[in-house]
Amino acid sequence: MQDTNLNIQGSDLLSKSAHPIKMSGEKVNVHYGTKQALFDVDLQVNENQVTSLIGPSGCGKSTFLRCLNRMNDTIDICNVTGLIKLGDQDIYDPNIDVVELRARVGMVFQKPNPFPKSIFENVVYGPRIHGLCRTKAEMEEVVVSSLQKAGLFEEVKDRLDEPGTGLSGGQQQRLCIARAIAVSPEVILMDEPCSALDPIATAKVEELIDELRENYTIVIVTHSMQQAARVSQRTAFFHMGTLVEEGQTDQIFTNPKDQRTQDYITGRFG
Ligand SMILES: Nc1ncnc2c1ncn2[C@@H]1O[C@H](COP(=O)(O)OP(=O)(O)OP(=O)(O)O)[C@@H](O)[C@H]1O
């Protein structure tokens, strides 16, 4: 069912120039074997804003998202061409350290996927392997501050040694966000982060996304147009592997330029 009665709150009135470009894709084409999934996509992501990627199932939203931290590298048959930059850096340059890239551009998945370890270990794992903390005090500090930033600390502070998998779905997703934050990323990619959550847990994660944009750049794939309207300042509409249009979220939802966008947001397809 399509979302209707859109509630646009996330938009701000800052001009695009007030937010420098953090990441950009130019002429991005993606093939899975012989099947082409993205066609000449040009998209810029602004710093300290939330950009939503929306569009019907199979239109290429997740494929584009995964290009931004080279997660598609893990799919053998996937071939990405075009220029994708983080700041001024071509992230597909052969000299790029992909592990470091994925620390700078973190990812939160559709289904909460904590490691089968304690809450503490889930958060400290990344900073430890990246050499960001060595002493016990440093580890405690990163765990506490990451859980605080993810809005989870108060709920788990007395059970940091208990398994992350024992938390509720919404708490597990915020733990995964804390885990992403722990390595001080610049960009956080979220692939339908609320699709496995109930409405209350969803509201908490949406509130968190709104707070996080102060310090991070966020790109979110969502099927919910209401969610895109609530959390994002910019929205990109994809259809059949092409980027149809991108703009301020309120403009996309109230005054789209392309008929396909209009049809999608009014529930005519998708
Ligand atoms: N690992 C893969 N192997 C082969 N084809 C794939 C793979 N992942 C995606 N595709 C294909 O690429 C196209 C785009 O898929 P993608 O998952 O990016 O779309 P999406 O818009 O995120 O869809 P959804 O909203 O259903 O998650 C689809 O035709 C899909 O079948």
UniProtKB/TrEMBL annotation:
The keyword Transmembrane does not apply. Keywords: ATP-binding, Nucleotide-binding, Phosphate transport, Transport. The keyword ATP-binding applies. Pfam families: ABC_tran. GO terms for biological process: phosphate ion transmembrane transport. Residues 23-265 form the ABC transporter domain. CDD domains: ABC_PstB_phosphate_transporter. GO terms for molecular function: ATP binding; ATP hydrolysis activity; phosphate transmembrane transporter activity. GO terms for cellular component: membrane. Belongs to the ABC transporter superfamily. NCBIfam families: 3a0107s01c2. This is Phosphate ABC transporter ATP-binding protein. It comes from Cohaesibacter celericrescens.
